[in-house]
Amino acid sequence: MATLTYERMSQVARANCLIVMANLITRRTLLGSLIAACLLHVWAYFAPRTWYETFPGIGRGWLLRLGPYNEHLVKDMAALYMAMLVVTVAAWRFADHDRYVRTVGGAWLAFSCFHLLYHLQHLSMYSSGERVAIVALLSSLTVISALLLVPSPRQNAGLRSDTRDNSSMT
């Protein structure tokens, strides 16, 4: 029985293969960015006061301007990020399955939009450079989240990238 090698594939099949591979790399990169965002907040759970007083960690103390320290609020927010970390890592693992990636993208988009909206309403307490950094960082998370909602090229071509039988996804 002959095996199908890259050299024996048609030009269209090769192009489709490259598109699917590029999509997978892109999705994993986007999800990796969100995973990095989550990992920054693990610090908040285990050292809430230090996180509150020094975030974003470059000697700026952005959170001090928002009001008094509240350990409960900081730990709840950190717990949310850790929960998002779990589902985002799962989506990274199954990046070729639209259902998982798009669900995680939708959750991140909802969170990111409201987070960005809050900070846009409270920029007056920051310097112009900090305003640019805050808007750029939070906007980029919003865009990354929205990009995860785009169906994979495999799905656009009529091929399902996920199946009802999830037993093979272990």
Describe this protein's structure:
Helices cover 66% and strands 0% of the residues. It is built from six helices and no strands. Helix 3 (71-93) packs antiparallel against helix 4 (98-120). It has 170 residues and is mainly alpha-helical. Residues 160-168 have low confidence and may be disordered. The two termini are 29 Å apart.
Task: Compute the separation of the termini in Å.
Answer: 29 Å
Mean pLDDT, all residues: 84
Helical content (DSSP H or I, runs of 4+): 55-70%
The number of helical segments is 6
Low-confidence stretches: 160-168
Largest sheet: none
Order of helices and strands: HHHHHH
| Number of distinct beta strands | 0
- Principal-axes shape call: elongated
Structural class: mainly alpha
Radius of gyration: 20 Å
Q: Give the DSSP E fraction (strand runs of 2 or more residues).
A: under 5%
Notable characteristics:
single chain, 170 residues, mainly alpha, 6 helices, elongated
Short description:
By secondary structure, the protein is mainly α. 66% of the residues lie in helices and 0% in strands.
Explain the layout of strands and helices:
Layout: H1 11-46, H2 48-54, H3 71-93, H4 98-120, H5 128-147, H6 153-156
Helix pairs in contact: 1-2, 1-3, 1-5, 3-4, 4-5
